[in-house]
Amino acid sequence: MTKRFDWYLIAALVLFLVDVGGLTAWEVRARIKADTSAYFDLLNYNQPQAVPSAPIPGRFIAHAGGALNGLPYTNSLQALDQHYAAGFRLFELDFEWTSDGHLVLVHDWSLSSHQFGVPEHVFSYNEFIHAHPLDGYHQLAFEELHTWLLAHLDASIVTDTKGSNQRFVSYLTANAADINSQFILQIYRLSELQAARNFHPRAVWLTQYKVLYPVWALVRARGIDALVVPLDLYTREPSLQSVRAIPLYVHAVRAQAAPDVLLQWPNIYGVYVD
Predict the structure, then answer these.
(1) Pair 165, 240 in one domain
(2) What's the domain count of the chain?
(3) Do residues 147 and 194 both lie within one domain?
(4) Of 40, 224, 235, 258, most Cβ neighbours within 10 A?
(5) Cα separations in angstroms, 257 against 39, 154, 203, 272
(6) Sign of the CA dihedral 236, 241, 242, 247?
(7) Does 130 share its domain with 197?
């Protein structure tokens, strides 16, 4: 443990000092926070013994169900149906909790309040299922997604939750064990890896936006099936472009530009498509 502790500490300090020049005070604080989180997580998380899954065949993922008439982030039944009919089999969806503890599909309550034309607030479950969004699309409760997945057994859901990932995985374990193989769980920190593996999903991907691990930590992460990063992070970090041990996905790209991203950067395996 001491050797591992020293090695990560030395690597973190050296890489931080080399790369800190020219940053503002705010950026330095953010970098220190990211390096500290990465150092702690790499040192302490228990790497599962499960063999990483084979790469997922689909290269394009319908982001938030896929845009409808240029409107992103609907997470709606119509988005799922339209993009499934268009050939998509991978769908990234956003999950949130109602005020009384039900799981529903919304990007966040601020956006949803706007979509429903009401003041910003967290909806109750009853309010959510009876409200009518201004765009006319059908907003899904988790139970409806469960039914949809049973009717589309070749579809897989890439999860994104703004709340506690531990709470989310616990809910899936209790309510979706029969369709666990249709879920690709996104985790946000390596400390969430074992709990995600215990659900036995199709795959576990580490996505970078809640906690931005520095690149030196990303290339050392083990036990995950894929890495997901913003496209702008990938393009400005040459060391990420050399990651070949696991598939690398980027987000989010307009549908018409997605094929060009794969052509321009061959090391990118897949794209989240708006």
Answers:
(1) yes
(2) 2
(3) yes
(4) 224
(5) 36, 26, 26, 11
(6) positive
(7) yes
What are 46's two structure tokens?
């228990």
Provide the CATH number for the domain around residue 142.
3.20.20.190
Which two tokens mark 238? 């040459």
Query: Distance (Å, rounded) from C-alpha 35 to C-alpha 27?
Result: 12
Any domain includes 191: yes
80-116 pLDDT tens trace:
999 999 999 999 999 999 999 999 999 999 999 999 9
Distance, in Å, from the CA atom of 34 to the CA atom of 256, rounded to the nearest integer, reads 34
**Nearest-5° Cα angle at 96, 65 to 80:** 15
Which of 3-17, 45-59, 132-146 ranks highest by mean pLDDT? 132-146
Integer CA distances (angstroms), 172 to 65, 115, 143, 168, in order: 19, 27, 11, 6
Kindly state whether residue 81 falls inside one of the protein's structural domains: yes
Phi/psi of residue 172, nearest 5 degrees: -60, -40
Please name the residues in contact with 100: beta carbons below 8 A apart, sequence gap of 6 or more. 124, 125
